[in-house]
C-alpha cells in the first residue's frame, strides 16, 4: 500500500478554522480588550471550538511565544474587566473540570451593538425633529416660541404624530391661508381619528376628497361657485 505524503494545503485544511464576528474585530477596543487579549481569546476559541474546553495554558503560551505567567496575567485582567470568568463543567466520569467561559465578552459586545443602534435611532429622531422645527419657522417667517415648541414636541412624543404628518398638516394650513398651530392640530386630530398616519394614506385621502368635491354638481337654484385662484402646492422644506 502506497502512502502519499500530506501536502501543505491538506494540512492547512485539516487544521480547521476559527471564525469570529466582525463586531469583535472592529470593536474589541471599545469593550476593554487589548490586542494581546484578543489574540489570547482566539487561541482559547480555536481549541474550545474543537471540543477542548480547557486547553493547556503551556501550549497556548508556546503558540503565542510568551510565558505561562503572562497568559495568566492577561486572563486575570480580562476577568477584572468582566470579559471572561471561570466556570465548572461536569465530566462523563462525574468529576468536575474548571474552564474559561468567554460568554461575558460576547454579552458585552452585544450590549455595545444595542447601545450603538439606540444612539443611531436617537440621533435620527433628533435630526428629524429639528427639521420639523426649521420647516415650521420657515413658513411662519419667525422663530417658534417656547410654548409652540412644546406643542410640537407633544405632537411628536405624546400624540405620536410623525414628522411627515406635521409637514402635510402645514401644507394644508398654507393652502388654506391658516398658518397656525391650532389649525394644524385640528387637521392632525382628524387624520389620527380616521387612522391616517402615513404620508401615502393621507395623500390618498386628500386626493379622494378633492375628487368627490370636484364631482359635486350645484343644487337647483344655487349659484355656481367661481373657480377662484388656484392655490399652489408648496413643496415643504425648500
Automatic annotation (TrEMBL):
Ranges for domain DnaD N-terminal: 20-114
Residues of the DnaB/C C-terminal domain: 133-206
Listed InterPro entries: DnaB/C_C, DnaD, DnaD-like_sf, DnaD_N, WH-like_DNA-bd_sf
Biased composition (Polar residues): 214-225
Region called Disordered, residue ranges: 206-238
Membrane-spanning parts: none
Protein name in the entry: DnaD domain protein
Family, as annotated: Belongs to the DnaB/DnaD family.
Pfam families on file: DnaB_2, DnaD_N
Amino acid at each position: 500500500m502506497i502512502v502519499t505524503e500530506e501536502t501543505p494545503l491538506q494540512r492547512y485544511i485539516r487544521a480547521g478554522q476559527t471564525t469570529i464576528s466582525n463586531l469583535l474585530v472592529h470593536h474589541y477596543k471599545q469593550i476593554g480588550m487589548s490586542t494581546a487579549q484578543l489574540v489570547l481569546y482566539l487561541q482559547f476559541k480555536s481549541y474550545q471550538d474543537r471540543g477542548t474546553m480547557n486547553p493547556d495554558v503551556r501550549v497556548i503560551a508556546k503558540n503565542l511565544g510568551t510565558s505561562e505567567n503572562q497568559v495568566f496575567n492577561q486572563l486575570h485582567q480580562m476577568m477584572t474587566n468582566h470579559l471572561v470568568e471561570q466556570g465548572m463543567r461536569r465530566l462523563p466520569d462525574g468529576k468536575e473540570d474548571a474552564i474559561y467561559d468567554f460568554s461575558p465578552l460576547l454579552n458585552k459586545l452585544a450590549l455595545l451593538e444595542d447601545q450603538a443602534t439606540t444612539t443611531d435611532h436617537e440621533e435620527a429622531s433628533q435630526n428629524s425633529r429639528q427639521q420639523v422645527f426649521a420647516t415650521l419657522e420657515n413658513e411662519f417667517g419667525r422663530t417658534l416660541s417656547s410654548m409652540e415648541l412644546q406643542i410640537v414636541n407633544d405632537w411628536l412624543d405624546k400624540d405620536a404624530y410623525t414628522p411627515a404628518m406635521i409637514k402635510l398638516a402645514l401644507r394644508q394650513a398654507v393652502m388654506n391661508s391658516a398658518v397656525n398651530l391650532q389649525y394644524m392640530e385640528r387637521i392632525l386630530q382628524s387624520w389620527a381619528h380616521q387612522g391616517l398616519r402615513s404620508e401615502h394614506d393621507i395623500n390618498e385621502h386628500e386626493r379622494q376628497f378633492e375628487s368627490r368635491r370636484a364631482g359635486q354638481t350645484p343644487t337647483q337654484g344655487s349659484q355656481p361657485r367661481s373657480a377662484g385662484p388656484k392655490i399652489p402646492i408648496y413643496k415643504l422644506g425648500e
